[in-house]
């Protein structure tokens, strides 16, 4: 997929009729990231204390950045002087993308539409998430297929940091 700057332009999204959308707007702190595999086996890919921020703006922009805080720092302070092993380790402990989002109020889902992503294959994809909101807690649940063809579910639990994201 080819990238174009217009993919980053803010597209007006009217969330006035969407109570789910209005409740999502803000900044969220990652509390838990668990993958549930066949048979109920649970894996925490980024450990027991993952780090992440999720931002939803009122005009339909989303940014998701998650990382494993156990990643080791680079041996070099130079941006251009990393080993292939370091890059692999950095990538294994990081998820990041930004773009737009769509709300489906009737099905309590949000779909993330990345236009920029750490993993190039995510650009242009539709990433469907089931949404559960309770007070200042947000749970996003997503199903996905593993390399062996079996299915798994990601469960991400967030707590609200900021309830509004101001627009300029």
Q: How would you describe this structure in keywords?
A:
168 residues, Lipocalin, 9% helix, mainly beta, single chain, 9 strands
Notes on the structure:
With 168 residues, the protein is mostly beta strands. It has one domain (5-162): Lipocalin, CATH 2.40.128.280. Helix content is 9%, strand content 45%. The chain contains two helices and nine strands. Strands 1-3-4-5-6-7-8-9 form an eight-stranded antiparallel barrel. A hairpin with a 4-residue loop joins strand 5 and strand 6. The protein is globular and about 45 Å long. Mean pLDDT is 86; it is low at 1-16.
Topology:
Layout: H1 19-24, E1 26-36, E2 42-43, E3 51-56, E4 61-67, H2 84-92, E5 94-104, E6 109-117, E7 127-134, E8 137-145, E9 151-162
Antiparallel strand pairs: 1-2, 1-3, 1-9, 3-4, 4-5, 5-6, 6-7, 7-8, 8-9
Short description:
The chain has 2 helices and 9 strands. With 168 residues, it is mainly beta. The N terminus is likely disordered.
């Amino acid at each position: 997929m080819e990238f174009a700057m217009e993919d980053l332009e803010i597209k007006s999204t009217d969330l006035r009729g969407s109570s789910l959308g209005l409740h999502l707007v803000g900044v969220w702190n990652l509390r838990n990231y668990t993958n549930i595999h066949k048979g109920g086996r649970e894996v925490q890919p980024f450990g027991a204390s993952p780090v992440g921020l999720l931002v939803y703006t009122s005009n339909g922009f989303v940014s998701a950045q998650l990382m494993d805080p156990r990643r080791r720092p680079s041996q070099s302070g130079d941006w251009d002087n990393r080993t292939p092993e370091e890059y692999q380790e950095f990538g294994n402990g990081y998820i990041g993308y930004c773009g737009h989002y769509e709300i489906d109020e009737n099905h309590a889902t949000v779909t993330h539409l990345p236009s920029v992503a750490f993993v190039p294959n995510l650009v242009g994809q539709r990433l469907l998430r089931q949404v559960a909101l309770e007070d200042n807690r947000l749970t996003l649940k997503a199903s996905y297929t593993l390399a062996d063809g079996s299915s798994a579910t990601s469960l991400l639990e967030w707590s609200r940091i900021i309830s509004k994201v101001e627009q300029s």
